[in-house]
Amino acid sequence: MIVTGLGFAASLPAVQNAALHGISDHDAGLGSAVTTTVQQVGGALGLATFAAIALGSTHGSHTVESAGGLAVDGVRLAFRVAAVTLVVGAALNLWLMPGRRREKASN
């Protein structure tokens, strides 16, 4: 949780600056609102998706004891899926980054 908090604290101002780069002063409020809304909706959809993955793997448990063990397994699965999603997203981000394409084209 601490690492996640530090990561968000370090990255969100940079994301906000990048999203608002090139927007006129007149439209800065609207751009900020859209960026924040997209972040909130993305977080809610991500949480719902990973909670569904975690809870979906517990189907068929009929006792409290088996449900507890299956819930832990479900959370592990959700974290694995989240980790793979993070790695794929980071790779796509690096590959599709506009600045990197311009550098390669000029070389």
What does this structure look like?
This protein has one domain. Helices cover 84% and strands 0% of the residues. α2 packs antiparallel against α3. It contains four helices and no strands. By secondary structure, it is an all-alpha fold.
Q: Which helices and strands occur, and which strands form pairs?
A:
Elements: H1 2-20, H2 28-56, H3 64-96, H4 98-106
Helix pairs in contact: 2-3
State the main characteristics:
about 85% helix; about 0% strand; about 110 residues; mainly alpha; single chain; elongated
Report on the biggest sheet. Answer: none
The share of residues in extended strands comes to under 5%
Q: Which spans of ≥5 residues are poorly predicted at pLDDT below 50? A: none
Number of domains: 1
Query: How does the helix and strand content classify structurally?
Result: mainly alpha
Summarize the structure.
With 107 residues, this protein is an all-alpha fold.
